[in-house]
Design goal:
Order of helices and strands: EEEEHH
Number of strands: 4
InterPro entries: Ribosomal_bL28/bL31-like_sf, Ribosomal_bL31, Ribosomal_bL31_B, Ribosomal_bL31_sf
GO molecular function: structural constituent of ribosome
Oligomer: single chain
Structural class: alpha+beta
Protein name: Large ribosomal subunit protein bL31B
Organism: Vulcaniibacterium tengchongense
Shape: elongated
Distance between the termini: 62 Å
Subunit structure: Part of the 50S ribosomal subunit.
Number of helices: 2
Amino acid sequence: MKAGIHPEYREVVFQDVTTDFAFLTRSTLSSKETVKWEDGNEYPLIKVDISSASHPFYTGKHKIVDTSGRVDKFRKRYAQK
């Protein structure tokens, strides 16, 4: 393998913004935000809209997560008159 071409692989915390569920894993993503984890160390924080704690497949609940108004735009555009 060539040296210096691979991104840094480090531990990061992913946090679901809808349920405040967070988990520690390894990733190449980086963030300016940090969070203090349960082990007392500080890790970069990556915020996500959907995780296993809020995804309908894993929770068994169907709900629409619309962060950018796409559902309302669709309904307005294709509304029955």
